[in-house]
Amino acid sequence: MRALRLVAVAAHSEPPDATNLGRVRRFVELLAGSCGDSIVLLVGGYWGFMKVVVDEALRRGLKVVVLPPVEREDVEFPEGAIVLRTGLSYRLRSVAMVRSCDALVVLGGASGTIQELVTAYTEGKPVLLLLSGLPSDRVAALAPYLDDRRVTEIKVFDSIERLVPELCRTVAERYRESAKFG
Length: 182
What we know:
By secondary structure, this protein is of the alpha/beta class. It has a single domain, classed as Rossmann fold (3-Layer(aba) Sandwich). 41% of the residues lie in helices and 18% in strands. The longest helix has 22 residues. The chain starts with a strand and ends with a helix.
């Protein structure tokens, strides 16, 4: 059995507009067809952009893990999703999600999404940022590094078609590196 590759998705808690809805759906479509069956998506809830990610991923046969905050653990989750009720608040569940992943994809969002991006950066996780027209785009001005420590590169994309192949390469490369030391 191949090792699972955990891809966290940082995304807005509000429903997407038509343009971003298309991007989110296209992300899952390309991911399902490009990276193989070893990908597991991690999301922090089942609402807004994240609901679209979960529904599309399950429809396409991808594995999904939801880490809802304790404040929203009562949400009804879809059959097939693995739900980890950690008892953690919004911010802490974001840290747990990001620390558990092999890479973080930012599909657009606000402060929670930006927090997840900064956490991934400080933890040395690869960050792939899709420009979405949302507040998370502001981080692109700081790319490729948030500070002089240069912990990990933040890669910025203007299209899903460029992001997904890079994501597949990134997680495959991280898996090969970890296998050397495993």
